[in-house]
Design goal:
34% of the residues lie in helices and 18% in strands. It is α/β, with parallel strands linked by helices.
């Protein structure tokens, strides 16, 4: 299914019904299939229901020339929630998706109940690091996204109750424990995992679902 944004972009999404749906927001140079389906997240959330979305420029969504700043991506996702009829959701977001989830909770207060953010700390998004991620994942056509996301970080007080999770070997989110402490938020260490495999952690899944059910 597709939602149409204010600038006409078509944003792919898929839903599964449930009593407490979870919105899943993937990171840079990835998509919902790679981040959430293949890693077992959709299966783990079977009792909750879910909303999957491919951010613009990624997966099955359109690839317009602009609109990639985190606030703009959040507006895309809000259009998906409206189209899907999801009035209130919990959110699991990974890496760049954490920026989007954070902005979404600020944009739509009351509609985002809780946030579980993985693979992200307090440092500003770095263009060189994003290019390395794109190379590692063999992703192309993301220059506009890199340009518009670079320099953005999680800013302000948490817009919703939040937990953070990151692997011990995740250089992108190396300061996640310090950020969580500064925000008085729980931090879940995911052991000897890096930025590319921490998202599949069983502990991450269990911690997020426990947080949502608490």
């Amino acid at each position: 299914m597709f939602a149409t944004t204010g600038d006409g972009a078509k944003i792919w999404y898929a839903t599964a019904p449930g009593p407490a749906p979870v919105l899943l927001i993937h990171g840079f140079a990835s998509d919902s299939e790679s981040t959430w389906v293949r890693t077992g997240w959709v299966r783990a959330l079977a009792d909750h229901g879910h909303v999957l979305v491919d951010l613009r420029g990624h997966g099955q969504s359109d690839r317009p020339a602009s609109g990639y700043a985190p606030g703009a991506l959040a507006r895309d996702v809000l259009a998906v929630l409206d189209e899907a009829g999801a009035s209130t959701v919990d959110v699991v977001a990974y890496s760049m998706g954490g920026l989007v989830g954070w902005e979404l909770a600020k944009l739509a207060p009351g509609r985002i109940r809780r946030l579980a953010l993985g693979g992200i700390g307090g440092r500003a998004a770095d263009g060189d690091s994003m290019r390395r991620v794109a190379e590692t994942l063999s992703a192309t056509g993301l220059d506009a996204c890199i340009e518009e996301v670079t320099g953005h970080r999680l800013e302000g007080p948490p817009p919703a109750p939040v937990i953070f999770a990151a692997g011990d070997q995740d250089e992108v989110a190396a300061d996640a424990p310090e950020l969580a402490a500064a925000l008085h938020a729980p931090f879940v260490p995911l052991g000897r995992r890096n930025h590319f495999n921490a998202v599949s952690s069983r502990l991450f899944k269990e911690s997020a679902t426990t947080f949502f059910e608490g």
